[in-house]
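Replying to the earlier thread about multi-chain prediction with a worked example.

Input:
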Amino acid sequence: MNHPNGLTSRLLLEDYTAFFAHTAILVAFITGATYAGTFNLFAAYLAGAAISWWDSGVPHDVRHVAHVRKKTEHQLSNLSCASATLPRGDEKPSSDRNTHSDPAEQRQPAKGTSRVQSNGASCKPRTSRNVIQVSRSKDANSGEVIFETYYTQPLRRLLKPFFFASIGFSLPITRMFNGGVVWRGCVYTTLMIIGKLACGIWLLRFELPSWLIRSVKPNRLKFRSSSSSPTTTAGEPAEAAGATSDPPVATQRTRANSSAKLQDSTHQIPQPGKLVSLYPSTIVGCAMVARGEIGFLISSLAETNDIVGENAGGELFLLVTWAIMLCTIIGPVVVGAVARRLKSLSEKHSATDRRDVLEYGDWHKQVCPMMF
Amino acid sequence: MVQVISNLGIESGSFKAVTVVRPLLVSLALGVMVPIACRYAVLPLTVLVNQWRQNQ
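Result:
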């Protein structure tokens, strides 16, 4: 290539090139992993991580960046007129509607489902989720956009139905409704729920006991301003511990809560060792209860390979199936109930403007943005 | 995990250490080698290509 419009240069800027490169990387990873003897899903994950690292963590050619930015802006302007007629913040109807329209229009929503949101956010930043979407909005050749353009539709229309149908057909419905199987399945469900609820332990937060605060305060917190009361400093170390477990959510929450505490320190006197709030851990635990597809995949794989269930006529597999099914049903119901209660509580207390911001906070808007 | 179970199914009857250890070690090696390769092979290569494109 001898000039900017040379063949190689143009080739490197095309999204087909990116598509073929990404696909080649994915296929190479999966093939290598399968021959080496490990699970190919892990290789696919690594391929995706590598591609998105290359998009964001590598310096790119100036011309490439300029070209991609122009392309992205072009899409954005196209999308702004398309999304003007759509109900704001509602993605699903837009993608469904556009698949039935003409092909020229069909490509754009697939190209930037995140862009619909970022566009809405540029008009009116409503929640922090939209802000995150804006900062994450990628160029037109990034792995995310290429995936959305070329792979989302086949994935949604072909592969997902096949996956769920294969799971559904492998359920031994007729053998499942046996008295012994049912009650043992229910017992196993409770055990499984307890185990999955344990995920929420990471979000339990306690106020530290007062002697600990007093001992820590002169060393670590002496640089803080004198206006901040002991209430403000009390929850900070515990929250810092929480922040390590889940950085993006937790740091926002920490910030929100510490500011809330600053406001509310006049209203309440903390009791040392008190549980701050049980709601975050409840929601995370219940949300984890619902996740069981991989468990089902593994158990059905084990069943087809005759590893379990030879001793009791496949009863073990039926118990696992019962437990996963019940968990999948119970989890979302409980999450919905807790979220509804939380919403009503926060609405009630935002009206009275009391100390409850501390206990209910606004973290739930980050944890489960779909619900609010 | 899935690979371990399908390996177990293939070698029905005999339980060998290879069936469990090999997938684990391979995935561990893959997880270590890919970031290293990205950092020390892909990044210099990309910079090189960028420079080449700039010079042209």
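DSSP finds two helices and no strands in chain B.

Feel free to reuse this layout for your own posts.
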